[in-house]
């Protein structure tokens, strides 16, 4: 039975996909300290969190069978991704389910600021009918500066356009063309500061974005600007914000997120023109169900060893790309696994060439899974789709990946050259129609071998009697031969024999075979 620990009040309705699995037990956890989590995490195969639980390196170190950490939401800054990656633990998030909730919360903040609703409401509830203090401004005709034009930034833009605002945006990773299609003008950051009446931030907290809205930024802004942060605490420097609000340059600010959460004692909370919500951006019934369902499905996929759509620490891919390359993923892994059993010496370099139709796809996931197939059988540590590239890099293995339209007589071909301190080994495989996977070349010898079961691979001198002698040894061990392929370049030169056998041939028999005159090497490969 696999166990999933669910923290932070993830929506119960969304956990239905997990509860439907016969072999998965769902445990709803109460709020825990780091020490408490460290104590229990060893029991769990998967952990689901929102933003409250911190998945620190200590927690990750204490995990014994954890395969996946799921974030029911977007931001994964509460999860130590490097620690997870090093340990081969997949980190998944649910990036789409709360976009609208966060965008609507941003609009609510903007309208709340423009019309001073929270302060007016507070005063009225205290028995004071005060109309004079709450003269607001309209959004129509105002310029909204959006920093970070991703999912939420774009959804905010669309809603603000409906309110007849003019949108300008800064996002160094979004093309102007993309913005133009949404009728958004891309500007530099200084220009955005200079022109915007309202500024809203929608990017992740990174080294680059931490305290991005600081004194220098406030200095460049318009008199009377209003600031909104429904993204991550720390993007806005709260001390600087307080200073510029008190000085009157900033007419109002609304924060849903704070540098330290929970936050109940900030001086900002004393200001009438400051609106605060306790990280509620994603807190709608709809969003919570959406993200819980999404993350539950990802957790199931990860626990079953299937590919996940929204992994943040391994190559993830669109469903469209996945459908196209899924059969090639199996082939790539098999080629890696095959090579692992053929090698002599320490791996120095892996060269993968993708040809034919494969040249049209993003082949990074194929290389990753090929490395997993290659390194997992060789190394002591657990190598998986998450950490395979990192493991290769940490071991000083150079990985080179190229694509070419020229498929060398095949519609598609994956060729893997592995260089060790003892030489080079080449292997190539293809997918024929109907996803029929075949090994088509070993060290330059053309063959046509299946990619399942056990096989003896025997490079030898092309002369009579060798196949018979190898077959006799296999027969003496009462092992059935299921099929055979021989590849040679020229008569009397070197050749390769691939003998399909029903069981693993024992080491002592392999040693006997190597002694046959003309046999150069014997490798037992199981796929
Ligand atoms: N308050 C809440 O409850 C919620 C907060 N969030 C947070 O909102 C933020 C945005 O989420 P999404 O739109 O889904 O993410 P996204 O990944 O779709 O968009 C982020 C955008 O920020 C841009 N960006 C990155 N670095 C930048 C920089 N230095 N300057 C300007 N732009 C930069 C990226 O190019 C990207 O377009 C995240 O931090 C997320 O954690 C998301 C949901 C709910
Ligand atoms: O789960 C939550 O309430 C917060 C959501 C959030 O901040 C995010 O998705 O990045």
UniProtKB/TrEMBL annotation:
Domain spans labelled ACT: 455-527
Gene Ontology MF term list: NAD binding; phosphoglycerate dehydrogenase activity
PROSITE patterns referenced in this protein's UniProt entry, alphabetically: ACT, D_2_HYDROXYACID_DH_1, D_2_HYDROXYACID_DH_2, D_2_HYDROXYACID_DH_3
InterPro entries noted in UniProt: ACT-like_dom_sf, ACT_dom, ASB_dom_sf, D-2-hydroxyacid_DH, D-isomer_2_OHA_DH_cat_dom, D-isomer_DH_CS, D-isomer_DH_CS1, D-isomer_DH_NAD-bd
Coiled coil: none
EC top class, as a word: oxidoreductase
Alphabetic keyword roster: Amino-acid biosynthesis, NAD, Oxidoreductase, Serine biosynthesis
GO BP terms: L-serine biosynthetic process
Superkingdom in the source lineage: Bacteria
EC number: 1.1.1.95
CDD domains: ACT_3PGDH-xct, PGDH_4
Enzymatic reactions: (R)-2-hydroxyglutarate + NAD(+) = 2-oxoglutarate + NADH + H(+); (2R)-3-phosphoglycerate + NAD(+) = 3-phosphooxypyruvate + NADH + H(+)
Pathway: Amino-acid biosynthesis; L-serine biosynthesis; L-serine from 3-phospho-D-glycerate: step 1/3
Family recorded in the similarity comment: Belongs to the D-isomer specific 2-hydroxyacid dehydrogenase family.
Chain's role: Catalyzes the reversible oxidation of 3-phospho-D-glycerate to 3-phosphonooxypyruvate, the first step of the phosphorylated L-serine biosynthesis pathway. Also catalyzes the reversible oxidation of 2-hydroxyglutarate to 2-oxoglutarate.
Protein name: D-3-phosphoglycerate dehydrogenase
Organism: Desulforamulus ferrireducens
């Amino acid at each position: 039975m696999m166990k999933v620990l669910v923290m932070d009040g993830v929506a119960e309705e969304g956990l239905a996909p997990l509860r439907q699995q016969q072999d998965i037990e769902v445990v709803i956890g109460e709020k825990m300290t780091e020490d408490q989590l460290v104590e229990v995490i060893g029991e769990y195969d998967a952990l689901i969190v929102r933003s409250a639980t911190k998945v620190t390196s200590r927690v990750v170190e204490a995990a014994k069978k954890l395969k996946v950490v799921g974030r029911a939401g977007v931001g994964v800054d509460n999860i130590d991704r490097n620690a997870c990656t090093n340990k081969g633990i997949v980190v998944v998030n649910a990036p789409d389910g709360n976009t609208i909730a966060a965008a609507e919360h941003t609009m609510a903040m903007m309208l709340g600021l423009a019309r001073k609703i929270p302060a007016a409401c507070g005063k009225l509830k205290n028995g004071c009918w005060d109309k004079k203090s709450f003269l607001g401004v309209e959004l129509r005709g105002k310029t909204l500066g959006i920093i970070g034009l991703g999912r939420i930034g774009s959804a905010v833009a669309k809603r603000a356009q409906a309110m007849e605002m003019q949108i300008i945006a800064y996002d160094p990773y979004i093309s102007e063309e993309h913005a133009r299609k949404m009728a958004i003008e891309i500007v530099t950051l200084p220009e955005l500061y200079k022109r915007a009446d309202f500024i809203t931030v929608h990017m992740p907290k990174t080294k680059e974005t931490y305290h991005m809205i600081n004194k220098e930024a406030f200095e460049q802004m318009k008199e009377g600007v209003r600031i909104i942060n429904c993204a991550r605490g720390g993007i806005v420097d709260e001390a600087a914000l307080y200073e510029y609000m008190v000085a009157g340059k900033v007419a109002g600010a609304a924060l849903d997120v704070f540098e330290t959460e929970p936050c109940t004692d900030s001086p900002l909370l004393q200001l009438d023109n400051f609106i605060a919500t306790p990280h509620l951006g994603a807190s709608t019934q709809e969003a919570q169900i959406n993200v819980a369902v999404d993350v539950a499905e990802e957790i199931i996929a990860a626990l079953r060893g299937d590919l996940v759509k929204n992994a943040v620490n391994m190559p993830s891919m669109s469903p469209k790309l996945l459908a196209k390359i899924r059969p090639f993923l199996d082939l790539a892994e098999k080629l890696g696994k095959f090579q692992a059993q053929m090698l002599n010496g320490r791996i120095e370099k892996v060269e993968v060439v993708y040809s034919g139709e494969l040249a049209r796809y993003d082949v990074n996931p194929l290389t990753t899974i090929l490395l997993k197939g290659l390194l997992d059988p060789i190394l002591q540590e657990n190598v998986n789709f998450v950490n395979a590239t990192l493991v290769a890099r940490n071991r000083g293995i150079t990985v080179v990946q190229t694509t070419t339209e020229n498929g060398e007589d095949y519609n598609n071909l994956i060729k893997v050259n592995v260089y060790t301190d003892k030489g080079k080994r080449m292997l190539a495989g293809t997918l024929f129609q109907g996803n029929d996977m075949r090994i088509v070349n070993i060290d330059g010898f053309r063959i046509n071998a299946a990619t399942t079961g056990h096989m003896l691979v025997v490079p030898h001198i092309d002369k009579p009697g060798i196949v018979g002698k190898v077959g006799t040894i296999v027969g003496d061990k009462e092992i059935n031969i299921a099929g055979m392929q021989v590849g040679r370049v020229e008569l009397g030169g070197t050749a390769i024999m691939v003998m399909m056998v029903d069981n693993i041939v024992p080491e002592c028999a392999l040693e006997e075979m190597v002694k046959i005159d003309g046999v150069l090497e014997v490798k037992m490969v199981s796929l």
